[in-house]
Amino acid sequence: MVVYARDVPISTAGELDFQDITELVASVITEAKVRTGTATVFVPGATSAIVLNENDPAAVEDFKAAIERLVPKKANYKHGENPQSHVRSLMLGPSCTIPVRDDRLQLGTWQSIFLVELDVRPRKRKVSITIIGTSSVHEGD
Is residue 36 assigned to a domain? Predict the structure, then answer.
């Protein structure tokens, strides 16, 4: 059994910045030399999220518009300068777990992994990637 963890710094452009981190996560699986297992992707903080969906520019614009409609910037919030950021993070969630088979993420054809910045300003985030599974390196190789 292999357990491999890596934290990756990512700078964001601020509110509703969707960053495709699929290849980054795939590279950590390669580093971990895990053939079969799971990849967990987590972002610490109360104003960001990790989501899975299609990386198509029109789809991303639709995601942003839907988030704005569901949790508008201006409402009867009680919390400081970025209340919508916290509510959006609560709805989207900070992590996802993806199966790994044959050294690859088992994503659907159109699925990508996104870090979503929900804070009102650019941030420096740390994405924590943990790979757990069986090794792709056999003893004696």
Answer: yes
